[in-house]
Specification:
The chain has three helices and five strands, in the order αβββαβαβ. The protein has helices spanning 21-41, 83-95, 112-124; strands spanning 63-68, 74-76, 79-81, 101-106, 130-132. The N and C termini lie far apart (83 Å). The model has no long low-confidence stretch (mean pLDDT 82).
Amino acid sequence: MSFGGFNDNKQPAPMAEINVTPMVDVMLVLLVIFILAAPLFTQSIKLDLPAAQATPAQTEPATVSLSIDPAGKIFWDNTPVTQSELNQRFVIAAKQQPQPQLQLRADKNTRYEIIAQVMGAAQANGLTKLGFITEVPNASGAK
């Protein structure tokens, strides 16, 4: 019911306005609380942090691509090499700091005996980083 007059001849119409006074009062109280509490959130703590010296970034080791075709011919970075040349290159590569990573690419029809000989020669000459490069098949199964 709305208040407004003593005329009872008319039916009282419902009140169409919202009383916003309580909402404004609550908002003003919250504003005052936040104004008083804001300085508490900005306090900082003084810390005496230790100084650290950064170690120099290690350089990425070189990679050597060692490929073996189905006939057993060996390629050092796409250059054909003989078994004696390969052993010499292994010795030179093993002395480098950091040691290069040997990436072995072999055809799927290459005999495992040849691959095992190359891996054994690399290990015997001091190379410790060896990786195998393979081809990921497509989802359709085609090359």
